[in-house]
Amino acid sequence: MEMSCTSPVDLSGKVALVTGGNGGIGLGMADALAQAGATVVVWGTNAGKNSDAEKTLRAHGVRVLTRKVDVSRENEVVGRHGRRGEGNGPIDAVFANAASVAAHRSPKMTTELFTASTPSMKTGSSGPSERRQNT
């Protein structure tokens, strides 16, 4: 997979975490971050895809860490998050790309069903309008 972009920013010295960064859109995002000079931390559930992503991203001459983490499991997220950038300093940006919501055939997703299907997510923030009012 060969991608290229012209980076309008220099992310040298920054650490970016990309969940699901071992394939598809997540790998595209991780690749762009690496091209911009960021250290990239990839969390994914497939060790083989993690390894392939690591090789691809290292071709840009940046530090890359891949970890087998299932973001649908709160204990794995909390356990990994506590390690910060795992020797690379604090994490400057997180790109939450991993799919962790269970699919349901129900035409109506209730709050209870959503909460039950996403055990690692916490509710409480409504959306952009609430954030604007609080700033």
Write the topology of this structure:
Layout: E1 15-19, H1 24-35, E2 39-44, H2 47-58, E3 64-68, H3 74-81, E4 93-96, H4 111-117, H5 128-133
Parallel strand pairs: 1-2, 1-4, 2-3
Helix pairs in contact: 1-2
Give a short account of the largest sheet: 4 strands, parallel
Number of strands: 4
Fraction in helix: 25-40%
Our estimate of the beta-strand percent is 5-15%
State the helix count. 5
| Annotated CATH homologous superfamily of the domain at 15-100 | NAD(P)-binding Rossmann-like Domain
Reading off the top of the CATH hierarchy, the class of the domain at 15-100 is best stated as Alpha Beta
In sequence order, what are the helices and strands, one letter per element?
Answer: EHEHEHEHH
**Estimated structural class:** alpha/beta
How far apart lie the N and C ends?
42 Å
CATH fold naming of the domain at 15-100: Rossmann fold
Widest sheet, order of strands: 3-2-1-4
CATH architecture of the domain at 15-100: 3-Layer(aba) Sandwich
What value does the Rg take, in angstroms?
16 Å
Mean pLDDT: 77
Spans of 5+ residues with little confidence (pLDDT < 50)?
A: 123-135
Categorize the overall geometry.
elongated
